[in-house]
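Retry 2 of 3 after timeout on previous attempt. Resubmitting structure tokens to design endpoint.
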């Protein structure tokens, strides 16, 4: 029998400890590298933080597998068993340039089903936490279920990239939605943007390409507050690959999908 409470307690303690170490790194000189392109940044702290989690998990749960952004975990090609999905620092550009607006994202799945999701906004000391079936919490305070918001009173989190010429989506497709909403915001951390939808600070988050470690925890949290996440085509997310993302409360999700995103696709 898997002791999920114990896993949850350990995960929480490790996330907090990793957050402390990240904060301490503000006093040190970062070693900054690039990955797929000159703006895809990684630091020694991203790597050290991932290694910290991997050591703890391997020591405590040797049969569990780990999917981590920096690649120190396992090669995962099936969702069988218990899998920890970790982004040690989501929002590395913010971490480097701003020392804020980044988060640790940690999720634990069993056979593809999300059990535990944690997003830790280190600098604000805000831990968004969900245990499947028991609701979502912000620093131990229960987050209320999301309420319906009409599109014209809603805030949309979106990066300006997606309404300017880009490789992933026709820039015209999202413009009517951007015009219809009350306002737009962009925070530069997918995990924080998910957490803000979960808490109703924004009503929707749209982006074109996230990896499993960017959304694994957020997808668990949003379900616990009655929200919905899918691809921009309305399909279920694939935990083994990259996905476009539409996340919001259920009624807004349906409205935006039908009356804006799919409609514009059909009209294009
Ligand atoms: C990135 C951030 C960013 C999102 C990118 C992600 P990283 O993660 O979440 O907001 O737009 O798609 O890759 O590289 O900082 O962990
Ligand atoms: Ca990320
Ligand atoms: Ca990252």
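Retry 2 succeeded. Sequence:
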């Amino acid at each position: 029998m898997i002791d999920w409470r114990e896993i949850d307690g350990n995960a929480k303690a490790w996330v907090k400890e990793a957050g402390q170490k990240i904060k301490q790194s503000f006093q040190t000189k970062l070693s900054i590298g690039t990955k797929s392109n000159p703006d895809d940044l990684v630091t020694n702290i991203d790597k050290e933080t991932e290694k910290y989690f991997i050591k703890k998990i391997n020591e405590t749960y040797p049969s569990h597998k780990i999917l981590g952004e920096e690649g120190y975990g396992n090669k995962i090609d099936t969702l069988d068993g218990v899998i920890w999905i970790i982004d040690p620092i989501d929002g590395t550009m913010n971490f480097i340039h701003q020392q804020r607006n980044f988060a640790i994202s940690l999720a634990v799945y069993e056979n593809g089903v999300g059990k535990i999701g944690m997003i830790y906004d280190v600098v604000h000391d805000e831990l968004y936490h969900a245990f499947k079936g028991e609701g979502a919490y912000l620093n131990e305070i229960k987050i209320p279920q999301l309420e319906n918001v009409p599109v014209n009173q809603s805030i949309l989190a979106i990066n300006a990239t997606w309404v300017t010429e880009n490789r992933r989506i026709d820039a015209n497709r999202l413009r009517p939605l951007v015009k219809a909403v009350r306002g737009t915001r962009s925070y530069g951390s997918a995990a924080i943007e998910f957490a803000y939808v979960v808490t109703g600070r924004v009503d929707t988050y749209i982006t074109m390409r996230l990896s499993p470690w960017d959304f694994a925890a957020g997808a668990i949290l949003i379900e616990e507050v009655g929200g919905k996440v899918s691809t921009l085509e309305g399909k279920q997310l694939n935990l083994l690959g990259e996905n476009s993302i539409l996340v919001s409360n259920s009624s807004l999700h349906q409205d935006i999908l039908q009356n804006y995103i799919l409609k514009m696709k059909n009209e294009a």
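Attempt log closed. Residues 69, 87, 90-92, 188-190, 207, 209-210, 214 surround D-MYO-inositol-1-phosphate (ligand 1) (CB under 6 Å).
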